[in-house]
Design goal:
The protein is of the alpha/beta class. It has 2 domains: 3-32 and 163-239, Rossmann fold (3-Layer(aba) Sandwich), CATH 3.40.50.10090; 36-160, Rossmann fold (3-Layer(aba) Sandwich). It has 10 helices and 11 strands. It has helices at 14-17, 41-48, 65-74, 78-81, 91-99, 112-122, 140-147, 184-194, 208-217, 229-239; strands at residues 3-7, 25-29, 33-37, 54-59, 85-89, 103-108, 128-134, 151-162, 178-181, 203-205, 221-223. Strands 3-8-7-4-5-6 form a 6-stranded mixed β-sheet, sandwiched between helices. A 5-stranded parallel β-sheet has the order 2-1-9-10-11, with helices on both faces. α6 (112-122) packs parallel to α7 and α8 (184-194) runs parallel beside α9 (208-217). The radius of gyration is 19 Å and the shape is elongated. 38% of the residues are buried. One of its GO terms (molecular function) is uroporphyrinogen-III synthase activity. It comes from Thermoanaerobaculum aquaticum. Pathway: Porphyrin-containing compound metabolism; protoporphyrin-IX biosynthesis; coproporphyrinogen-III from 5-aminolevulinate: step 3/4. InterPro entries: 4pyrrol_syn_uPrphyn_synt_sf, 4pyrrol_synth_uPrphyn_synth, UROS/Hem4.
Length: 240
Amino acid sequence: MKGWVLITREAQDLPELRPWVPEELELVAFPVLRQVPWEEPAAWERLAQHLAELAVIACTSRHAPRPFLAQAQRRGLDAALTQLPVAAVGEATAAACREVGLSVALVGSQGGAALAETISQRFTVPAGVVFPCGREHREELVSRLHAAGFEVFPLPVYAMEPANPWQLPPLPPGPPRAVVLTSPRAANHYWQLTQGQFSAVPHLAWGATTAQELQKLGLAFEVLPQPNPKGLKEALCRIL
């Protein structure tokens, strides 16, 4: 029987990660956060004043494209925004963009910081970057684009709220071989839900901010060598 690895992602996220997981292990989704609607009118008003400056849409989450386009349509901004090329992190995010009619120009696999670097190489400043995102989002893409001279327009179009215990899928029997925690909030809520049930299991932090949260919780952990599927593979191979 295969060993299993708990990851605080949704089942829809796993196909992109499974090819990177050693054959001896099964990746099991434990989505401790669930998507809920969110809208920030002030962010949209700011964006509407700068449409002529926009060069590209940066998308780092597959949750963002659908509410982004729906909110744009309600404001009559969809025609202008759908003309922009999209830079996406991961094939799942790229597919979600295409599903709503956005044109994906490039797909990165190394996270938001690397996508910012690619955008900096492909587009010339001064230029504006639309960043449809969650209410809580990582800042590395925004900070790196700002440092490169781009004007960035973060646009929170959804939120992730803690799931209730009854909303979570059942887990396989026995302890996992590892637990992969993908964000600080996911780490915190995972700990609340499991009450230390898997504290003896190796815990892997997806990135530095998640690692900081695990440190606060008093958990022993390792940080992925890179915050991407390749880094996940390296960390899991070390555990095996």
